[in-house]
Amino acid sequence: MSLRIYEKPLVITDSGGKDSLVCRELVRRAGIPYEVVHSLTTADAPETVYYVRDTFRSLEEQGVHCKIIKPMYKGKRTSMWSLIPMKKFPPTRLKRYCCQVLKEETVKDRFITTGVRWAESIKRKESRGIYENLTSDVRQKLILNNDNDERRALFESCTLKGKRVCNPVIDWTDRDVWDFIRSEHLKVNPLYERGFYRVGCIGCPMAGKRRWMEFRLYPTYKQAYLHAFDRMLEAMHKGESRVKWKNAQAVFDWWMEGHQIEGQLRLEDMDTWRQANHEIQEEENEQYEEEPKPWQHNL
Ligand code: SF4
Asked: What spacing in Å lies between the alpha carbon of 31 and ligand 1's midpoint?
């Protein structure tokens, strides 16, 4: 479909995480032409950056075209650190503008493959499918939830370009993903061996309480966020918007949902982090109660 509609190979969007790794392996085994892209979020852990570079080097040696895309916003190069002052509020669970700019809009007019899975959130179960045709006109959006969907012929024959997405691991559970990685001896991002459940930006609001430990492991990222919050407050003052925060630290405390007493710095230890990880995962996986927890595979 990618060759027919776009006259170009399928693009695998690779975040450096376990789900992208499985997608890469499935597409490689399918024997179809493909390319791999990674969108640099500028807030990824160094391990992810090196892992992606190594992977791409070895794929290039095998003749696979790979590209690391540097993010653009309003026609200019951007980063997490410049987006925050531009948007005038920090990224949150409900307003993940960073993902939209730094990850989702980087590949245009191509058929892409992602590692999205229903097991990651209940919302995804309702809004994502194995095949998706996303057009600017929401009424024409087409999402197929299974391979035998009777609308598949429509999806395949329609030559309207829009954004076409294939999610080959949409119905895989965490266990499926880890079993496949272990049994096929695939080289995974080393962050998982450090106890990370998911690989995203350091400080990603979706990581909730896990961010405390992330900032303990990567204190320079905390400084980078504080610096960005400083510049965000400056931009807010200039724009005369109502500023509710006194300084960058106050923004950080609010953003971390830490509810500390002003001036008090709370440090979480490893046990607390593991406990938080456990509780969050229990919540997220409540419909997959039978599954072993990911850190049981990793640690
Ligand atoms: S992974 Fe998290 S922090 Fe990074 S771009 Fe996406 S929402 Fe933003």
From this structure: 32
